[in-house]
């Protein structure tokens, strides 16, 4: 038996071996010429992944929450109005962060498994003047995917900054920061970017940088203040040594490797792989009679799936059985439904074989728990869905 389990939670994910090897390399100086080159390359590659040739990338030690905090700390001042568009747990977290910086927040919360109505957003932006709005591309608590483009366009129409929490989407879902006119897209390293936890990453638009430069008050967080970080990002990009806080050298070496893997695959192909695997996986689970939190395929994430436990199945017993079988899945996150659903991450270097392992282990575990499913039912639906796609592709390409 392999000495390790298959990690299929929505982050941290399974990392590529080359990325993990980078973590074990001898740590170099943060001002060594080869590290300066690595950092500079990461900044350039982030612009490609975010599709933001004009944006200002920022790489700091921290988690996705720090990236959320950094956007709020730099762009929002006391008494600014902020509209929080929430599709779950992480939407609400953004309200807490904005409140901490003294913003006057209004939160529009979608019912569980749904998105917020666009007309309601437009009405609100028309009626009140907002400095910024926040939205979560994929809320990891519900598996709901929001289409950021129309919301970003509304934000532009009403002269309001848009901040996208892309922690569970960047490098897995389609993103076009400049075309869509999004002011900040942020993430953490441990998800589809494919690097162990510990990096807060964001790209800010030119407009966001102008708004920050025109602040009337100083930034309320010393660590997050772009006054401290912008010169560092510029220096690394110009291949000059600099220092504010010691960068997590090995993580950044790993980031360069992962970004190059992403670049080699190409964002279009990568997004399609995520979409096709997610769709086939949902078909497999549906054949096993699982219901999903998102109300439709159109708003289902391609980076993770959130599904209810079947009636009569003890969720913790099911997850324990899977873990014993070598497959680690995540429980529910929404406090009100925590015990009724679970989540499977499928992002980054995920393959069809990983998902086959999950489905077959799920089938066996359900049967062992006395739940009536036929062995192979979920797998068959998964295979059929994938084959349908590959037949279509070969017709197109051949
Ligand atoms: N936003 C979303 C959508 C997330 O999924 C997460 C992490 N699960 C976060 C924010 C917070 O990121 P971190 O745990 O890295 O602080």
From TrEMBL:
<dbReference type="GO" id="GO:0019265">
    <property type="term" value="P:glycine biosynthetic process, by transamination of glyoxylate"/>
</dbReference>
<keyword id="KW-0032">Aminotransferase</keyword>
<feature type="domain" description="Aminotransferase class V">
    <location>
        <begin position="41"/>
        <end position="332"/>
    </location>
</feature>
<feature type="modified residue" description="N6-(pyridoxal phosphate)lysine">
    <location>
        <position position="191"/>
    </location>
</feature>
<dbReference type="GO" id="GO:0004760">
    <property type="term" value="F:L-serine-pyruvate transaminase activity"/>
</dbReference>
<keyword id="KW-0808">Transferase</keyword>
<dbReference type="Pfam" id="PF00266">
    <property type="entry name" value="Aminotran_5"/>
</dbReference>
<dbReference type="InterPro" id="IPR015424">
    <property type="entry name" value="PyrdxlP-dep_Trfase"/>
</dbReference>
<comment type="similarity">
    <text>Belongs to the class-V pyridoxal-phosphate-dependent aminotransferase family.</text>
</comment>
<dbReference type="InterPro" id="IPR024169">
    <property type="entry name" value="SP_NH2Trfase/AEP_transaminase"/>
</dbReference>
<dbReference type="GO" id="GO:0008453">
    <property type="term" value="F:alanine-glyoxylate transaminase activity"/>
</dbReference>
<dbReference type="InterPro" id="IPR015422">
    <property type="entry name" value="PyrdxlP-dep_Trfase_small"/>
</dbReference>
<protein>
    <submittedName>
        <fullName>Alanine--glyoxylate aminotransferase family protein</fullName>
    </submittedName>
</protein>
<keyword id="KW-0663">Pyridoxal phosphate</keyword>
<dbReference type="InterPro" id="IPR020578">
    <property type="entry name" value="Aminotrans_V_PyrdxlP_BS"/>
</dbReference>
<dbReference type="InterPro" id="IPR000192">
    <property type="entry name" value="Aminotrans_V_dom"/>
</dbReference>
<feature type="binding site">
    <location>
        <position position="343"/>
    </location>
    <ligand>
        <name>substrate</name>
    </ligand>
</feature>
<dbReference type="InterPro" id="IPR015421">
    <property type="entry name" value="PyrdxlP-dep_Trfase_major"/>
</dbReference>
